[in-house]
Design a protein that fits this description.
It is a single chain. The chain is α/β, with parallel strands linked by helices and 324 residues long. The chain folds into two domains: 236 residues, Spore Coat Polysaccharide Biosynthesis Protein SpsA, Chain A, CATH 3.90.550; 68 residues, no CATH class. Helix content is 34%, strand content 16%. The protein has nine helices and eleven strands. The strands form three sheets. The chain has a seven-stranded mixed sheet, with helices on both faces. The longest helix has 18 residues.
């Protein structure tokens, strides 16, 4: 292991596996170069029961339930599940359980890696709803991540915390490791409840601001990006696509091939993003691929998208043509 090693980490739940993580693992198995490795943490199911797990030298699977501190945290904090024990409507910003898996996976891997030596390289976090579109190597990553930086993130202008679907920590240096130790401590000690929001993005940003003030060498991949979708507007989009939020549902087996294929009619998607449309009307459709592309663009700015296709009108016009 050398100081420029890239260690990729992710995690997923049983529902996440069925909805999107399976596609992520398949794409990693296909496109990761031999000089990259993915460690995937799963929780709350036995991987032996899931036959779809590919056997690959590029991927290692670890059971998050083997971490006693994670189990202890979940048991002690189970009421803080975004509903406060069903006493209020679900609020993902106040779900101290859902987001903890990411923190425990990231820190468990990082701490065990550092125990093996000093120059261990980078730990790169990728959410499991990120799909690889083309081959990617260590050289490609190092073309995006400056080697002289200590922390690489996706900043956002329109909200007060970074998008944490991607984070990169240079563990050859002490400050990034200290930040991860503090993050884990905030969860282990239940201090997370003292913050305005309890998800990993908010906690990361508070720690990032502190370490930034003390001189951590950070690099922002998206310094000028507006909106919420920093990942797909970053240099990472050369190799990856992030199916953020409601877009995850588009990774189901029923999704048409166009979604992860070539992005034609880009200008149409750009117009939808620019004007922040939430209601889409299309006259006729073939296999729904264009509808999905338009919906993906709309989801960059809104949580709900209304789509209608006028197939009936098209049919009526065809009948009139035949009669004439």
């Amino acid at each position: 292991m050398s100081k420029d090693t890239i260690n990729i980490v992710t995690s997923f739940s049983p529902k996440g596996w069925e909805t999107y993580a399976k596609k992520m693992i398949e794409s990693a198995n296909k496109f990761l170069a031999d000089d990259l490795h993915l460690t995937a943490y799963y929780h709350d199911f036995d991987k032996e029961k899931i036959k779809e797990f590919p056997k690959s030298n590029k991927i290692t699977f670890k059971n998050l339930n083997d971490i006693p501190s994670m189990l202890k945290y979940r048991e002690e904090m189970k009421v803080h599940d975004g509903t406060e024990g069903k006493r209020m409507p679900y609020n993902w910003r106040l779900d101290a359980i859902k987001w903890c898996h990411k923190v425990y996976a990231l820190t468990d891997f990082s701490f065990k890696l550092v125990e093996k030596g000093v120059q261990v390289g980078w730990v790169v976090w990728l959410d499991a709803d990120i799909i690889l579109n083309k081959p990617v190597s260590k050289k490609d990553f190092l073309g995006i991540i400056p080697l002289n930086s200590e922390l690489v993130h996706l900043g956002r202008k329109d909200v007060d915390y970074s998008e944490t679907s991607f984070m990169a920590f240079n563990l050859n240096n002490t400050p990034p490791l200290d930040l991860l130790l503090d993050m884990r401590g905030i969860y282990d000690s239940h201090e997370v409840l003292s913050y305005r929001e309890w998800h990993d993005g908010f906690i990361f940003e508070r720690l990032f601001n502190f370490y930034n003030a003390h001189g951590i060498k950070k690099h922002n991949l998206t310094p000028d990006v507006r909106g919420l979708d920093a990942f797909n507007n970053s240099p990472l989009s050369q190799f990856f696509q992030h199916f953020k939020g409601n877009k995850k549902q588009l990774l189901s087996d029923k999704t048409t091939p166009d979604v992860v294929g070539p992005k034609r009619y880009k200008q149409l998607a750009d117009v939808i993003r620019h004007y922040k449309f939430s209601r889409l009307l299309e006259t006729g459709t073939w296999n729904g691929g264009r509808a999905i592309e338009m919906a993906l663009a709309a989801f960059d700015n809104v949580d709900k998208v209304y789509y209608k296709v006028m197939i009936y009108l098209k049919t009526q016009m065809n009948l009139l043509t035949k009669q004439n």
